[in-house]
Structures are given as structure tokens and as C-alpha cells.
Amino acid sequence: MRRKYVIWRIVQFFIVLWGAATLNFLIPRLAPGDPVRERLYQMAAQGGYLQQGIEQMVKAYDQQFGLDQPLYIQYVRYLWDTLHLNFGYSLAQYPAQVMPLILAALPWTIGLLSVSTFLAFGIGTILGALVAWPKAPKYLQFLLGPLMTLSSIPYYLLGLILIYIFAIAHKVFPLSGGYEIGSIPSLSLPFILDILRHSILPALSIILAAIGFWALGMRGMMVTTEGEDYMILAEAKGLHGSRIFFRYAVRNAILPQFTAVAIALGQVVSGSVLVEVVFGFPGIGTLLYKAITGSDYFVIYGVVFIVILAISVATLLIDLVYPLLDPRITYRSQ
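Now predict its structure.
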């Protein structure tokens, strides 16, 4: 791999981050209304009385958050703080800072989404390869219809169905939450088992919806590899069917799947927002949903930037590792 290409890809990485951070700064500013004033009025309304001196409080909060400064000064301060992963204070949960809120929610989402993504990727890829393989058992062809159906059902809809069946009708799993109300978080075995019990339904909704996506993608790539010259040569050499399947067909068909799973892993930190909201799971998705509904755009800044950073890192790594996965790919000049 040429050093010049690696340097250019890293430069592109930082350009993408700068562009995304700039959009992340500008887009919320284009929305109508003043988030600080709206939040204070909501708090006053919830209190059941009219907050006296609310304009003075708005000015104090504007000074605290730097919202009384010209836009270009806010932008420079924003870029500097973003470089240090300092997104300031939460408007809705002041004086809590944004980064601790993200760090508290991040392990929940990473644990749920990473396990779900790898399981869906592994199961879906194998099923898709078997469905397309001519020598596979014929009954596997009947899986094509259910896989197509699952790929078209949103996560949150499957989540609602699972809640009704396993939490309301039969009460097998908890209805919502990350652990039992009143439990004290610890590294004890009962608490870990409690977390696993609460995460089964949201994980199952994600896995069932994603299996169809991975299976259909792998099936399409397997169909394209079956007529390739190296497949015909492997069969002419009399190689065993399982060796042809894994070493020649799956190995070549799975390459685009790796690109997709890298992007999917980059999106893990964003969580499946609606799934987490439906199940009341205390992850990044729930944090982002509360920030949007509460006009807390400092938290929105932080969550969106962390998501962009994760996706950018994942795509950069897969781009640099691709020549190791497929020797036919090279970035050297011919």
C-alpha cells in the first residue's frame, strides 16, 4: 500500500469530520425558536406557575452557554471544544455535562448493538450463502420468503410485536428498562443476569430484522460468484463441495459484506433509536431522543459527532484493511 494513499485517506478522514462538525453546528441553528427560552418555559409550565424574571434567566443561560456571542465566535469555540470532545453542559439536565452523559449511555448501546450486529451478520450471511448454493438441501429454499419478509420489517415494529407476545401476553421477559427498578448497578452475577434478561427482547428485534438484510445481500453475491472461472476450475479439479463452498464461493462473496458490517459497527454508537425508546433501554438512542424532544442541542451535538466519528473511523479502517482481505485489491500504482 502506498504511503501517499494512506496519508490522503487520513486527510480525507479529517476533512469529513470537519465538514460533518460544521453541518452539526449549523443545522440546529436553522431551526426556529430559542432552545434555552423554550426549555425554561417548559419548566415553568410543569411547575404550574409563571416563572418570574424568565428573561433574566434566559440572558444568564445565554452567557453561560455562549449563545449571546456572534455566530462566527460560537463556531470557533465549537470547533475548539469539539476537538477536545468537550460539548459543554446539557440544557435539560444542567449542570450535567454532555460527555459524561454520553459515556454513561455508550456501554449499554455498544453491548446491545455489537452483539446483535455480529449475530445477525453471522447467521444471515451463512443462511444467504446456503440459500444460493445449488448443492444445499432443497428445504432451505423455503427460507427465502421469510428472509425477504424480515428484511422489510422495521426494528421498532418487531419490537412492539415481541413486547406484546413475550412481555404482555405471556410475561416471559421484562416490559422495558435496562434492569429492574430499584436495583443497584454492580458487577455481581445477579445484576449481570438481570441486564441480559432485559436485553433479550431488544436484541432479538434487531437480529430478526437484520438477518434478512444480511442474507439477501450474501445470496446476491453468491449468485454472482457461481459462474466465475475460479469456481469452474475448482469443480473441474474435483475439490470437495464444502471446500469449494467456503474457500472459493463464500470467501469471495463475503467481501462486500465486510464493508457493510464495518459501516454497521460504526453506527452501533448511535443505537437503534426507536428500539431503545420502545424498550426504554438506557442507551445512546434514548439519550438522543430525549435531547431532540427537549431541544437540548448540546447533547445532540455530542451524540451526532460521536456517531460521525465512529462511522468515519470504521470506513477508514476497512478501506486500509481491504487489501489484506482480498489480495486482488491494491493501492499501488501500476
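The chain has a mean pLDDT of 76.
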